[in-house]
Amino acid sequence: MIVIDHSPPDSVYERLAALLRDAIERGEYGPGEKLPTEGRLAQIHDVGRDTVRDALSVLRAEGRVVTTRGSGTRVRANREMAVVELPAGGQVTGRMPTPAERTRWNLPPGVPVFVLEHPDGEPEVIPADRARLAVPPIVGQDADEASKG
Length: 149
Known about the structure:
The chain has helices at residues 12-26, 38-45, 49-61, 99-105, 143-148, and strands spanning 65-68, 72-75, 82-85, 91-95, 113-117, 123-127, 131-134. The protein is α+β, with helices and mostly antiparallel strands.
């Protein structure tokens, strides 16, 4: 049994989310595999069910798990991540998808979208669980210099 440390600085649900995230990344729970029930996770980690729900919500927002009412929570199948390069002068915001966007991309609850606003065009909506945003290097600066700020 892994017991959650209830001391600050992170909240208990964030620490539980980190433990579950690590278990998924280590392969303890593979793609498509069902996680223990909320009640069982609460018992295993000595936390309340609300804490488990909050932790699972974090993992859903990250696109790592999918919860289906009546079926439980499963690890999301691995998906190729597109790299989206931000255009010069572009801006990105995040928000929850509209019902139409959720249907269009078959997005599970809790997965946000990025809205990429091009300086000279229409905004582009991108599911956050399918894309990594990349900032292009500044002209005349190599990647190591750019990452140092």
